[in-house]
Amino acid sequence: MSQKGTASELGTQPIGKLLTQYAVPAIIAMTASSLYNMIDSIFIGHGVGAMAISGLAITFPLMNLAAAFGSLVGVGASTLVSVKLGQKDYTTAQHILGNVVSLNVLIGIGFTILSLLFLDPILYFFGASEATIPYARDYMIVILLGNVVTHMYLGLNSVLRAAGYPQKAMFATIMTVVINTILAPIFIFVFHWGIQGVALATVLAQIIALTWQIKLFCRKNELLRLKKGIYRLQNHLVQNIIGIGLAPFFMNIAACMIVILINKGLKLYDGDLAIGAFGIVNRISFLFVMIVMGLNQGMQPIAGYNYGARQYGRVNQVMKITVIAATIVTTTGFLVGELIPELVAKAFTTDQTLIDLSARGLRITVMFFPIIGFQMVTSNFFQSIGMAKKAIILSLSRQVMILIPLLLILPLFWGADGIWFSMPISDLAASIIAAIMLYRQFKLFKQKAIA
Description:
GO terms for molecular function: antiporter activity; xenobiotic transmembrane transporter activity. This protein has one domain (7-450). It is globular, with a radius of gyration of 21 Å. It is mostly helical. Helices cover 86% and strands 0% of the residues.
């Protein structure tokens, strides 16, 4: 099927069928990605040590910061590609692809240079101690050297998915997971390269996947392909890409600030191992969050295309189905976190203190997990239809306006418990705000449909 035909299906095929077609590959890819992060942590915990898990957790803010710049380009571009395909504006969609490549190269190189120049001060600011910084430093040096590859791989995968090839985007992600999962234990247990071996396995896996993506986009029969004349940055495209990508960008920046506050607070009240506990809790909860993100990625091209085509009834329908599916996922995460937290924590480490800290933290963190799926889908929904301001408001409501103040205030009264309880409280408050905004938007869609 031609790429034009593949894209036009977004406006004609049944919504349930489309969401399954687009979301299942994305869910598989995101779940696989989350699983290999978990597997990395398990290898590190058993092959390097409990303190190495804390060192890895120290790198989370810097990883979030790198992801922020990656999503600024990737998410913004994929949304624009979906809308432009819906409008049959194939020339602009082609130039968006070229601008994705140029922006990712420029931003990736700049981020790498600045981060490497100030790496130790950055890691200490993020909560590192003399015991954890060797692990954090060794890991991040390798990751940063491959940062351009990471940005390019994620950016091209976003465009691939938005252009009507979710299965190929899924395959690229699974490819990195399989290669990384094979290489990481070899580098740790055979070559004894420690935490650097895990980072090297990640970068090598992404290099191989990026090579395959480039080959796909170089095929002459593709509507969107890499060719001469599309790489010059165009102001209006860059502004639109960045404008739409600001919502996930700010969300990742806020996530960076939040992890810094969490790391510093846990280190102050419970010590370095508490940071490792947060690292384990983050890996477990993130598995379910990534599944919801997969649903969101499946929803994005469908919502974007139909919004561009002014088919508001279909936009509403895909939103509702995605919310139901996301709620089922996060409710499952809630049950796992409340019923078997010790069991899942033991998969990462044999250190009993770390297991106990992780189990308690997980029980608290997933307290309101059943409703967080709704909040995530709503934020992504506004982003998918190009309503960047509303998406930013929703992203910042949980992260900045609610969670950060709670992280600063509650520990003064409850110590480490105040840090853990800040997360579910912010989930509840942000979901209420999302419900109000979504209700108002659905009313507007209904009025437009009638008109």
